[in-house]
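Subgroup meeting minutes
Present: P.N., E.W., G.H.
Scribe: E.W.

1. P.N. recapped why we're keeping a running log of single-chain structure predictions: easier to compare across weeks, and new members can see raw inputs and outputs side by side.
2. G.H. added today's entry (351 aa).
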Amino acid sequence: MNDLKFDLDDIVIVPAEGSDIPSRSCCNATSDFNGKYNMLPLMASPMDTVISENNYKWFLTNGIIPCLPRGSKIKHHSNKSYIKQLYFQSFGLCDIETQLHSDDTDVHHFYKYPNVLIDIANGHMNKLIPLIKEIKEKFPNIMIMVGNVANPETFANLGMAGADYVRCSIGTGAGCTTAANVSINYPMGSLIEECHQQKVQLDLKTKIVADGGMRNYSDIIKALALGADYVMIGSIFNKSIESAGFNYLYGIKTPLKTAEALWRWGFPIKKKYRGMSTKAVQRSWGKTNLVTAEGITKYQKVEYTLEQWTENFRDYLKSAMSYCNAKKLDDFIGVAQYVFITEAARRRFDK
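Output recorded in log:
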């Protein structure tokens, strides 16, 4: 009982004793991504009902780092090649292993992407350690993200192997049923904090990506305060009109432009949202031997444009930073103080 783990709902952030910041406008809610580009500490989850090659620029425009699902293909014009620096391209573990060990240099096409996501459900596989080391040895300039993990020690091992980003959390996502059915999980609050402790103790440069289960602005800001460098989001972004999910009006599938016009006129447009381990996704990847799904499909009401949501988030984050006397994200992430609260305390402000 002395080692109980906590969730984001179990804490609130405490303001600094005194703040020298007169206005939230003095705070900078962005930071360098890959050392060059100012972006928000947000990533779009590599889910086919969230992001695609058709809408990823909406995320970039709003300062959100896209993580494209497997199979996405983007054509770049020569004068816009810098865009490749700004998103992660996802590949399955088998794709990585096959192409890494092939003698045909042409199949190394995916290494043209500066940012590669090894997109697997179980980031605790021991085979990942030598694989990451081999990729880094052959292609040292590639930025590698891997996960998901639900053990702070695994985060440390992947970081020491050379992973640049690690997705943290299993079973917390709105479309994921792993924790409910398999009982594998590590409460998000404790996981972020303990991964951050490992990062500091081992002097790792590896970025913590808190992935899954964010329900509101407050959850995201708490995750950052606890030490997450980035927060990966699926369900919240799916509820934007620009998301990649299919649009439905009264159960009828509706083209995006029509759906957007109707939504702006007040019609109740819904978006399809599904976990990436559902059998429907397995079929879309060309699999014929389908495994038991650990994800669900549901329909969510469109609530905002991506720009509207992002504008609110930016202001809320800057406001929290001003309370904590943090002008820069580096002064807020893993630095802000928190306290535990009772369920009664949470209900008083949870509106």
